[in-house]
Design goal:
Strand content: 5-15%
Protein name: AAA domain (Dynein-related subfamily)
Domain ATPase dynein-related AAA: 28-156
Number of domains: 2
Number of helices: 18
CATH superfamily of the largest domain: P-loop containing nucleotide triphosphate hydrolases
Pfam family, one: AAA_5
Radius of gyration: 25 Å
Strand order of the largest sheet: 2-5-8-1-9
CATH architecture of the largest domain: 3-Layer(aba) Sandwich
GO molecular function, one term: ATP binding
Shape: elongated
CATH topology of the largest domain: Rossmann fold
Order of helices and strands: HEHEHEHEEHEEEHHEHHHHHHHHHHH
Organism: Desulfatibacillum alkenivorans DSM 16219
Structural class: alpha/beta
CATH class of the largest domain: Alpha Beta
Length: 400
């Protein structure tokens, strides 16, 4: 699909999570077999999204010396009490993107420095030019290469790179022949730029947060060690998936498989890179079940109009609120918006919806009502602020 136009074939299943990670400004960890195109794939992705002329570095971490990363200390500035480095062709300072290969085999000193690079794109507290950080490991169970420390592993979005044996004949033919390079026509740089400008609605943000909190709660007894950073990463990836769907028009970014992959990508214990007794298949099944339940209740699939929606007492409150939110945006009848403003306090009083959610929807309905009234009246521009205040106050009196 999207990566085919870069000449990366057979990666369709992991495209959404890779792009969501990069849109979230998170570091990506490719987990896959030797010769699985991890290094070349990282470089092609970086050049496609940042520009063909970028500085890309690939480091073999097991043999990496600290001087390789920083260059050499500048004695002139050191004599003045300032720490600066003389960059070399290998140093990190001017690189736009980097791949840290076999990061699980780093010596402890280098690994402590890479923590900072992965987390903040800085080194020794000094800024770099890095915009993308990729790492790569071979599956420890397969290659006996050593497991990763959870503190480092949990800073990545983990992506399972497919083995060629799992690809179909067409994908293999493309790999062998190069057929497909440059085809597809998607402006990936533009797509990410548009996605970065996306702001989810308040209702949508609440649904995403609710989904991630539920997954963390339901997996609480599975042996997985969750932290606040992972929860934030989950929310960020799912939100970026929604942003990419909005920017591209491609539903693949918000289908259940992709959403489940966003969630699973921030759990090192199920990606084969950390030593654990967690049953990965059970955890993935739990995630998929929860995600599917949320998807089935997604407001986009609910074929109800506003009068029908406000008369029901929903079991999935956030899905219902999302549908009401979208219906308000397109409603053209002021009376129906009055009905919404009368109904929401009733549902709140019954404990069906929370105060903050009710207030958010009421503000949305009142704003839409004011907009329709201004359009109908043809209010002069200079009088709009005062007229909006009067409309809102009158509306409060009507529905109270």
């Amino acid at each position: 699909m999207l990566f085919d136009q870069m000449g990366i074939h057979g990666w369709q299943a992991i495209e959404p999570v890779v792009l969501a990670a990069l849109a979230s400004d998170l570091s990506v960890l490719f987990v896959g077999d030797i010769g699985g195109n991890k290094t070349e794939g990282a470089e092609r992705i970086a050049r496609a999204l940042l520009g063909q002329d970028i500085e890309f570095r690939a480091y073999e971490v097991p043999t990496l010396n600290f001087d390789d990363l920083v260059g050499f200390v500048n004695p002139k500035t050191l004599a003045k009490g300032a720490l600066q480095f003389v960059p070399t062709p290998l140093s990190i300072w001017n690189a736009d993107a980097v791949l840290l290969d076999e990061i699980n085999r780093a010596n402890p000193f280098i690994q402590s420095k890479l923590h900072e690079l992965v987390r903040k794109r800085t080194l020794l507290g000094m800024p770099t030019n890095l915009k993308m950080v990729f790492s790569a490991v071979n599956p420890p169970e397969t290659y006996n290469t050593g497991y990763m420390d959870l503190a480092l592993a949990s800073r990545f979005v983990c992506v399972q790179v497919p083995n060629v044996s799992a690809m179909d004949e067409i994908q293999i033919e493309h790999i062998l022949s190069g057929n497909g390079i440059g085809r597809g026509g998607h402006d990936l740089r533009g797509m990410l730029a548009r996605a970065s400008a996306f702001e989810p609605s308040g209702i949508e943000a609440m649904r995403i947060t609710s989904l991630c909190k539920k997954i963390m709660s339901d997996l609480g007894n599975s042996g997985i060690v969750f932290n606040a950073r992972q929860l934030k990463m989950m929310v960020s990836l799912v939100t970026s998936g929604l942003a990419l769907q909005w920017a591209s028009g491609l539903d693949v970014f918000t289908n259940p498989d992709s959403i489940a992959s966003y969630i699973g990508a921030v759990i090192p214990e199920i990606n084969g890179i950390a030593r654990t007794r967690v049953d990965a298949s059970v955890v993935r099944g739990t995630i998929r079940t929860i995600v599917t339940g949320f998807q089935l209740a997604d407001p986009m699939t609910m074929a109800r109009n506003l009068p029908e929606l406000i008369e029901i007492e929903p079991s999935d409150v956030l899905a219902w609120a999302g549908a009401v939110d979208r219906s308000i945006e397109s409603e053209r009848q002021p009376q129906l918006l009055r009905d919404v403003l009368r109904r929401l306090p009733i549902l709140q009083g019954k404990g069906v919806i929370e105060h903050d959610l009710s207030r958010t929807l009421m503000e949305k309905a009142a704003a839409r009502f004011a907009t329709l009234t201004l359009i109908e009246e043809g209010t002069p521009v200079l009088e709009i602020p005062g007229r909006i205040h009067n409309i809102i106050e009158n509306l409060k009196g009507e529905v109270s």
